UniProtKB/TrEMBL annotation, chains A, B, C, D, E, F:
<dbReference type="Pfam" id="PF05448">
    <property type="entry name" value="AXE1"/>
</dbReference>
<dbReference type="InterPro" id="IPR008391">
    <property type="entry name" value="AXE1_dom"/>
</dbReference>
<dbReference type="InterPro" id="IPR029058">
    <property type="entry name" value="AB_hydrolase_fold"/>
</dbReference>
<protein>
    <submittedName>
        <fullName>Cephalosporin-C deacetylase</fullName>
    </submittedName>
</protein>
<feature type="domain" description="Acetyl xylan esterase">
    <location>
        <begin position="2"/>
        <end position="318"/>
    </location>
</feature>
<dbReference type="InterPro" id="IPR039069">
    <property type="entry name" value="CE7"/>
</dbReference>
Length: 322, 322, 322, 322, 322, 322
């Protein structure tokens, strides 16, 4: 059943980063480009059968052209809202690959605790948000290889920045206080990316679970299920593009982004995870220089710690705000 | 992809009941026996990271001897508790086959709405509740064939009555008002059973999803996945016991219990459900004579309506209490 | 092993069309819109290790904005080129779902026979052609549900017209004579669509194999493998959109398009096809009013008649030109 | 296809035992407790279509309370019975996990050779023997995690002693001579356990095949199929209990029991066994200090040597009695 | 789970035979040809660890040229041999597809009861018997399509007659009395064939279990697993040979052979059998005009009644000899 | 996803040959025996819908007795035929395991380039060529274990020599010039064998793709899919024959044959190939001492380089003839 290195090795596993020489410049340019682009947010109340939480239907401009990102913004009503220094701590939530932000009910257990929650779609997946970026070529069905011939055109450049812009949206709201990021699988990868790219935007904690999009070379070597397969399937048809594609991926690799993170991080891995193998999570964790906590679930797979870890997150958020 | 009859046929599908002549007597005796057995409940506060809900760890005597049933009892604190005529509406929750009541966090979205929640284990499954009933023979690993040679010794006679006794527990609490039952799959079957067997115990609504344990003959004929297989596997080794076993099962068949239900019911079925095939859910629904609502999810399987249906349940509960 | 109706029933199977009242208007408008849009084709020679066939790398504007469609155009050199009345018969080839036009070598056995061949990508699949249409919402990964909320925005409106425009490209070439369409699976569906929508563009024959995108209701009812699953997966998450989506699909259903075809058709079906079930192919065939030939492969699945059918196609093309 | 270490390494594989400090005391107490508990055996003739073998239906008290263990006792009639010093060598047979003692016919080829045979159920599996031990908590469906929080309450403490008591039953019979133990998979684990725990009860040989319940840590690390999965599934839901559970398992580990065995042992392993991986069998074998024979089947899985090994067992038993 | 018609329909299921006009002539010629060919049997004692049964290694000429058929002939020694009128009843056993006669130990439980047993290989499968018939063409790997273009050259013409010749061998032995045929799956089909073709050779009973090679058209229509797939795979590559091949198969179809059987038959079917679907067994049974008994195992698959049915066979044989 | 050693290790992987002492003598004798046996070829024109290529239906005597090998011989007509020094370069093509030479259309893209092509069946597989060799025993269904008890009787001794004789046939034709061998999987193994055994027969190049039948020990150790499984399945039933069988296989191992090859070789491997694992291809390549080229497809499996590699082969052949 062991699917990766033994735990003792994982704890020491700190592979060399694969950061390209212009990695920082690439992201500095990209973030600046996003910062210079207005959100054009629209916010309208959305009917929901609760007296305690108001739900808003939000749209804002995604990074680049043509793509409006959809989100649910949940705001607890008085007296159900937590306030810290007059503002409400806010969870920004990113979803897993091929999923969506879901219905507002998905975030209710956080909102009913008194937090604001902003849950956003990842573009071009199964939510209300298209991916209207303009690409130069086709790709394997799915998102993993869209625009992969160049870091500047790669799908996740846009998806990552959309997520940074979700933080920008939250910060534009009067009621919003300290920001905590959360998400599992792709949502974990997005959490890492935003924590790394938006270090000056009021984020006080990040909770990536079983993160995807980390340490691509190792992941491809050892995964057996899940969307890393899109890359393999692409390379079956484009065998001569492999190394160039790995170069592109290096800009988006959570392992390379990890050293930039400054806020406290609560990370989880499942040692039987065959979709996002544990060595890829440890590679991220061992490159973090921020305050950090790791929860290892020894016989769990990609579901991670589930209810046990949900409580860890409740406690982690409370500790951040204490 | 169609896995059962077409929808138009399902809507008319009302097979003959298979109720044995002593069906009512059997259950009258059983319920009386349970009513005469004390609960011996223990209730102790359990630490949980919330200021809004108090969690209690509950134990009470299951039906018959030797089995203490475990439950989580969640009580919202002031001012977070809903009150109807001075008492708090309470959800009693039953879980799916082979699962458990989980951790208290599983029920938090209901408790944080202001409802009391009592979530109990099904005996001998993966919770804190053993099945210490005394049996006369072995069985297929699992619960489906324990004691199946006689209705009086069948596992679900005990499991059903444990669930009725969960209602008894709730009614023993001062803060509890109207009771609503809920659960999916096996939890749906238990919801139907309790609604049918505890008609005079303050239950105002029942919300069974994709119910298991209904219309056994049809289910066995058409299912392809899930725990009905235990019966088939048992019959492979005991080919001469089949008809006797079906006789036992008839006492526990949700279809036979359905006509006894008086409270309003919100039922869901997924038309691609291969574990609890839709015709078995329709057989129950079409035998209900209480106020009833059916939600059909045409391309969902055993997951049913998921978030869509969760909202239906929020609304249904609100309508019951309006 | 039988996966659909018995052959005798299939031969008589002619379900009612599901053509919407504005079906003809919809397509008239769409075709006119395409006809009014310039191709802006680029054609450059591409190195290939053959003295007998010249390969050209072609790009032309896909339907609507922003999408350049890629194709390989193979032209036999003298004396290897067939001429009919001074022009060379030309095969236009469409590929299967999630695939691409491949490398030029894929079409060489036709080009080396002396035909021109134009093989084009389907947009947004695994070729060199992106799908840069602008959508209003997200979708299941893949193409089947992109823009499905409205026939005007549906992915295949664009994909179908790109294929019609491939015919336009061929007709713009001096060397091109009579046009024959070919393709299997999605390529079969596209062949049907183009034959139905481009009836006045010099097409003398169409050879759809095991066609996809035909008789959606039946296909969804009975398929077990392949991309119809995208629709089912979409409806799991959007259960209330099913009927609207079927309405959209009706405009793109090969069965509804079939009666419009005028050129001779050679169609193939495999009776064990679980991806594009045989009843959906018969539904098309039985609605054709043009000269038509059906080849039924009784124990083949989605691979169809393979080498046997390849010879049928060689013969069919020769007969068209005789 | 290699599923474990190479053969050369397996032959040397002798991992450290994981015996707890009170291991011997634990078993001394347990055996004494069993020895002090009467069998209360009942023996009644059971009709069987053979003139050569009489079949008896046996029941005796299992270890602890409430559980009557069922067995088939086959006694060859004169002149078909082998006698050694006036008594008949007797095979005690234990079955595989989730199975049962079967019907008497299963043991006929041994009885017809002239041996007595006693085949017993393992409690709570698919025979006529319930498991009416009283547990403190629930468990994964199946037996592997029942009572696992404490060695004293663990399911296999009872199951192992039931098997020792099967030897006690046989020894209580006048016609019984030297005793040989046999069984495959779980039956192999039980054979090892009884040989180790009942060293003074007339056992002259033990024939465990592809034994289960051996070297748990390694087994969990490398198995891919079969009931070790119950432990993994339990740990998914109880991630914090893993080490305590391993402590419990150490008392029941065939590897730890192996050094106690004194009678000759014939052990078999299949090098492609993914249910009871070969390294776990070698770990047992290499810790045996009794006379011992190993049969390695290099390309067999959990079926082991089948008919080849059946002959080995015929020969082994004959050699023990020679 | 239902895999074929409901039981009530199966009991009435008696499809038209597909017997060709020269069916009887074909078999008359074939049997005569075999009867005219000498056995050239060799019989040598084979070492086996039993004092009660002597094992002989037998070889005899298979039907046609070049193929020596291998068998184990087990003869109980005095006083272990049953005698009826001075001769020993003898079981002739045929094995399942792709298997072999196994080792002699496989038949020991019958020999130790006092019967002679002759277990023979089916040619060209996994025993010691090659298939050295001379064919005119290739075939799908396996035996099902060897020589299928003509009944005279079809593999099973030779395999069937080899089995008839096994009876001839037994009859050539002085110690042999009444003959009973047995076998499961392919062995069931061979049992039916021999019982039908060797009606005058001292056969007093036939015990086919879950027979293969019966009612080919229905079998192909409804099977999902097992060697009927060879035919389907062959037809994928030879789509134009299907009807001719069905014609060949008609000569070997157990359903067509059934009416010729005169001895008592004990037949078994499993209603969940997906390899040899139950309707094909009922088709045989309902065409039998001899004394006959059917055992239906309602929730068993191709394993049939296993130990339950083994006892049925012990009883059936005893009743034949009573 | 990595299924074998890392690429860097593969590049250095050169395991010891397992050549038996009489390896060269064995093959010298075998080849001489074949050379002494007449071909008795028959060649008749076969109708095919092409004006450019004439197809002939060929039969010739396979190695040993009784087996006529079938082949398609395609000869381009003037002016479509390439000529080198007045003769036409000729491709000899061997097919994959369990397949056949197919229909003539399969080789048309080579013939239409101007080459002669001779595509032959492998005996006893799914073509028109039986395997009428006389064997001494049965075998697993399939070819891998036929006659495996002795190199002299092993199936592939005959299959290899049939392929050498295909070269002999081609050399007997007036129009034939330099010979190039090609094939994938089993066809790759046959290509290697013929190149090694027919070094003096005008072969100027060999193009084995993803070759089967190479480095058996390693292959068996690491494969997971495909026909090596026949050996494993055979050894399950014949566990004591393993080493003898490996001895037989050593004579047919492409790795042992590789050093004998003198003509240029173009070899391909897919690093994710689980049927013919990459280390077995590298073992061959690293033992080649002829001019050689390796194409490694890093994320392809047994499909190898497909269209990319097809172009490599066009180029390789052109370079051989340049």
């Amino acid at each position: 059943m062991i699917v990766d290195k033994p735990l003792a090795e994982l704890e020491q596993y700190c592979p060399a980063l694969t950061t390209a020489s212009d990695f920082d410049a690439f992201w500095a340019t990209t973030v600046a480009e996003s910062d210079g682009q207005p959100l054009n947010a629209s916010v309208e109340e959305y009917p929901f059968p609760s007296d305690r939480v108001t739900v808003y239907r939000v749209r804002y401009d995604g990074f680049g052209q043509n793509t409006r990102v959809a989100g649910w913004y949940l705001v607890p009503r008085e007296p159900y809202r937590i306030e810290v220094d007059g503002a409400t701590p806010t969870l920004v939530h990113y979803h897993g690959y091929s999923d969506s932000k879901g219905l507002p009910i998905r975030q209710m257990s956080w909102a009913l605790q008194g937090y604001c929650v902003f849950a956003v779609d990842t573009r071009g997946q199964n939510g209300e948000t298209p991916d209207n970026n303009v690409y130069n070529s086709g790709s394997i069905l799915g998102c993993m290889t869209k625009g992969i011939l160049d870091p500047a055109t790669y799908y996740y450049r846009y998806a990552y920045m959309d997520c940074v812009r979700a933080v920008d949206f939250v910060r534009s709201r009067a009621e919003t206080g300290p920001i905590i990021l959360a998400g599992g699988s792709q949502g974990g990868g997005l959490t890492i990316a935003v924590a790394a790219l938006a270090t000056d935007k009021g984020i006080v904690g990040a909770m990536p679970d079983v993160p995807y999009l980390c340490h691509f070379r190792r992941a491809i070597e050892i995964f057996t299920d899940g969307p890393y397969r899109e890359l393999v399937d692409f390379w079956k048809k484009h065998p001569y593009d492999v190394e160039q594609n790995y170069h592109t991926l290096s800009y988006f690799d959570g392992m390379n982004l990890a050293p930039r993170i400054k806020c406290p991080v609560l990370l989880s891995v499942g040692l039987l995870d065959t979709i996002c193998p544990p060595s890829t999570g440890f590679a991220v964790y061992n490159h973090l220089s921020c305050p950090k906590t790791l929860k290892v679930y020894p016989y769990n797979g990609h579901e991670g710690g589930s209810e046990y870890h949900e409580i860890e997150k409740w406690n982690f958020v409370r500790s951040l705000l204490a």
